[in-house]
Specification:
This protein is α/β, with parallel strands linked by helices and about 300 residues long. The protein has a single domain, classed as Alpha/Beta hydrolase fold, catalytic domain (Rossmann fold, 3-Layer(aba) Sandwich). The protein has helices spanning about 1-15, 35-40, 95-105, 125-145, 160-170, 200, 210-220, 220-225, 225-230, 250-260, 285-300, and strands at about 50-55, 60-65, 75-80, 105-110, 145-155, 190, 235-240, 265-270. Strands 1-2-4-3-5-6-7-8 form an 8-stranded mixed sheet, sandwiched between helices. Strand 7, helix 10 and strand 8 form a beta-alpha-beta unit.
Length: about 300
């Protein structure tokens, strides 16, 4: 775990100082002492109930976080970020909020996938991985008494984009290699500091992820990968962002919401003061409490 922590901390510093710098957020409250990655990642690591493979690659796995009781358990489909790059982050970055949800009686299916820096990752492999991981949840739900009727997808950073994309799968073009029959139905998506519009993220100045990685994950196929191109997707969408996020510009949420509402979509934006990018997945933060409220509302809790 130490190599993962060190790699993520170094990567976050590199991203924060790359040439494609995020726009400065609008002035709101006085600058806060924002969390750094070690503030989260150096904490004791909670453990999932089980790790389940959905494919043959070592990264084609998902962690199941199962709460106490017989169920049926309301369920969150969790998608990690890390600029779509495995070297930066994997599913373990979401362990602390997965444990928090489990303690609240909510099951979590926390998926991993091949990033753009792994053989088979990028377009189309990363999308095919997250789609297969999502659909595998349907296979395992009966055994673990998971209630998928109100399934909510939660994604952080690049995972916010992928969670929205999973909800948009029924809108994929018929000829797309990303299309598969009977995709898992998702009713609500909660995006935590996400990059929902890949075309916006690909234009300079971009975000803390830079613009080159966006080109890799999109593969030039915007009609299949950028959520506004797939609209209307017909699911409730909640975008939770920190007003002092130095990785993802706040405009990514506000601009996306305006464009999607114009298409008749239900999009809510929650801007959390004195919060950055790490706070969004730290269980003791104000930003996560906002996210939890939205998740519980989506699950009818």
């Amino acid at each position: 775990m130490r190599g993962f922590v060190t790699g993520l901390a170094v990567a976050s510093l590199t991203l924060g100082g790359c040439a494609a710098r995020p726009a400065e957020p609008a002035a709101t409250a006085a600058p806060a002492q924002l969390m750094r990655w070690p503030d989260l990642l150096d904490r004791p690591q909670p453990k999932p109930t089980a790790t389940i493979s959905y494919g043959s690659d070592p990264l084609q796995i998902a962690d199941l976080w199962l709460p106490a009781g017989r169920g049926p358990h309301p369920t969150v489909l969790m998608v990690h970020g890390g600029c779509w790059t495995t070297e930066i982050a994997d599913r373990r970055i979401m362990n602390w909020i997965s444990e928090d949800l489990r303690s609240r009686g909510i099951a979590v299916w926390n998926i991993d996938y091949r990033g753009v820096d792994r053989p088979g990752g990028g377009y189309p492999g990363t999308y095919q991985d997250v789609a297969a991981a999502a659909d595998a949840l349907r296979t395992h739900a009966p055994r673990h008494r998971l209630d998928l009727k109100r399934l909510t997808a939660v994604g952080h950073s690049a995972g916010g984009h992928l969670a929205l994309w999973l909800a948009a799968r029924p809108r994929l073009p018929q000829a797309s290699p990303l299309r598969s029959p009977g995709p898992l139905a998702i009713r609500t998506v909660v995006s935590l500091g996400g990059l929902p519009d890949l075309e916006q993220a690909a234009r300079p100045p971009g975000s803390g992820c830079g613009t080159e990685v966006v080109a890799k994950i999109a593969g030039g196929r915007w009609a299949e990968t950028s959520i506004p191109r797939l609209a209307p997707i017909g699911v409730r969408q909640v975008l939770v962002n920190g007003t002092q996020d130095r990785i993802i510009p706040n405009a990514f949420a506000s601009d996306y919401a305006a464009a999607m509402r114009a298409r008749g979509e239900r999009v809510t934006v929650r801007m959390v003061e004195r919060s950055g990018h790490v706070e969004l997945i730290a269980p003791d933060s104000a930003a996560w409490q906002v996210a939890v409220g939205e998740i519980r509302r989506a699950l009818g809790r």
